[in-house]
């Protein structure tokens, strides 16, 4: 979510180098057999296939997908949304999502921003026209999902989403706009839905947070899809040392989704997320509805375990590998092996 004026030259140079490296890497991997070890597999990532003609594409996004070999009918779908200054291929290489897709048997969708929409490569989560149901960028992602479900015979009731930074903010928007579509979502270093309506407000929200009551935050979500009364499970992750997005945004996200689900802060229980600890809220049926994890020593990015993912800008070494944790907590690892 970091804008160019707020990114140091050294980090910008690293991102450019990583992009050049990934282009070369993609060409090599296209001619290689599958890696021989999980570590090698995670470091290489996968060659993502671009799909065109998936719909009217109101948000003018690129669609890239990864379908593991021998994927069985009825497989789940995971949507991954990159942050500013990242490509879909870089995000996959750093996170190791495609290695998990091969291991556990699910399809992977990577929407990617076009530079013509945003010169910094950020999803436009702060523009009302980009995040309204069936319009803009959220409309494009919804069309991509429908295309994948139809073409690959996926389980339309088993769709999950995660996003980082601007991708996290767009994840929040998609969960609000299409609550009936997603079983669960993870917002990483993101901002609450409705936190801004233009670029200047977006920068202020990122750096300072926005003050609203829990009910005011919840109303913004509920107005996005007013005919819906069931809401997906939401997992909120943030770095305690995040220097880009103020942690007040994670706290506001927590308040927003607790209020949407009609839950109280006081009802939190302790939960284990890999080697991390966090808070968990259940509904009256005992189902998890909101999760909240702050990693004290993490800056702005996705926590990854080197070897399961690749350390790079905004993919930060940790003892907790977030994609693996999500796979486990969403039940994707306990399902029968699909490949």
TrEMBL record:
Top-level division of the source organism's lineage: Bacteria
GO cellular component terms, A-Z: extracellular region
Annotated Gene3D superfamilies: alpha/beta hydrolase
The UniProt record lists the keyword Ubl conjugation: no
GO molecular function, one term: hydrolase activity
Keyword terms: Hydrolase, Signal
One Pfam assignment: Esterase_PHB
UniProt protein name: PHB depolymerase family esterase
Provenance organism: Allorhizobium terrae
Lineage: Bacteria, Pseudomonadati, Pseudomonadota, Alphaproteobacteria, Hyphomicrobiales
């Amino acid at each position: 979510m970091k804008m160019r004026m707020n990114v140091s030259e050294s980090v910008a140079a690293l991102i450019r180098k990583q992009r050049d490296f990934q282009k070369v890497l993609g060409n090599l991997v296209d001619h290689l057999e599958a890696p021989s070890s999980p570590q090698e597999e995670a470091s290489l990532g996968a060659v993502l296939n671009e799909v065109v003609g998936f719909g009217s594409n109101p948000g003018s996004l690129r669609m890239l997908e990864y379908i593991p070999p021998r994927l069985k009918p009825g497989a789940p779908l995971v949507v991954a949304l990159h942050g500013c200054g990242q490509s879909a291929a870089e995000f996959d290489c750093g996170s190791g999502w495609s290695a998990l897709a091969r291991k556990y048997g699910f399809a992977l969708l990577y929407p990617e921003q076009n530079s013509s929409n945003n010169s910094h490569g950020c999803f436009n989560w702060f523009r009302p026209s980009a995040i309204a149901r069936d319009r803009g960028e959220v409309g494009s992602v919804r069309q991509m999902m429908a295309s994948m479900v139809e073409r690959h015979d996926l389980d339309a009731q088993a769709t999950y989403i995660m996003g980082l930074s601007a991708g996290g903010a767009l994840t929040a928007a998609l969960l609000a706009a299409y609550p009936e579509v997603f079983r669960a979502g993870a917002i990483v270093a993101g901002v609450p839905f409705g936190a801004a309506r233009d670029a200047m407000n977006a920068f202020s929200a990122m750096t300072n947070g926005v003050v609203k009551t829990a009910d005011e935050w919840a109303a913004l979500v509920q107005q996005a899809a007013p005919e819906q009364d069931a809401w997906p499970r939401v997992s909120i992750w943030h770095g305690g040392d995040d220097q880009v997005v103020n942690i007040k945004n994670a706290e506001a996200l927590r308040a927003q989704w607790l209020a949407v689900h009609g839950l109280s802060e006081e009802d939190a229980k302790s939960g284990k997320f890999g080697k991390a600890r966090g808070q968990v809220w259940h509904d009256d049926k005992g189902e998890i509805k909101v999760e909240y994890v702050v990693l004290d020593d993490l800056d702005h990015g996705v926590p990854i375990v080197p070897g399961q993912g690749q350390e790079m800008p905004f993919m930060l070494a940790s003892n907790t590998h977030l994609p693996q944790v999500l796979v486990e907590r969403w039940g994707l690892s306990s399902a029968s092996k699909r490949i």
